[in-house]
Structures are given as structure tokens and as C-alpha cells.
Amino acid sequence: MKAELLLCIATALRAVTVAFVTDARLAHAHQLVANTTRPIADIAFASGFGSLTRFNAAFQTRFARAPREIRGAVAVHATDRLR
Known about the structure:
Elements: H1 2-35, H2 40-46, H3 52-63, H4 67-82
């Protein structure tokens, strides 16, 4: 019984840790997408994602927008400020 409880706690902590790290990586990636012209694939790999497909899916899930949409929105706002 005690071993099962410890296993359950360890599993839950691992899941929380993975979610925390993934969220931090995505937050950093969001900043890079919004504030640099670095290619999105480079940002994905620099943020620790093994594939562009997984990065795009995680980014879309977290921010409800694709990286290219974020970059496009930032470009539109920058153009508006120049007018």
C-alpha cells in the first residue's frame, strides 16, 4: 500500500514537472517568435522540441494560435505603429 502511494505521488510530481518545464520552454519560444526574425524551426529546436510538428502542436495548444500567426500579428502591429 505504501509503495503504491509513493509511486502515485512520484508519477504526479513527474507530470507536474514536465508540464512546468514545457510551459517555460513555450513561453520562451513565444518571446522569440514575437520579438525576433529567427526561423520558427530554429526556435523550435532551440526550445528543446525534437520536431517542428510537436512544437507547432504544443504552441497551438498553449497559445491557441500557431507561431506564424503570432509572428504575423506582431508584424501587423509594427506596421501600424509606423503610420
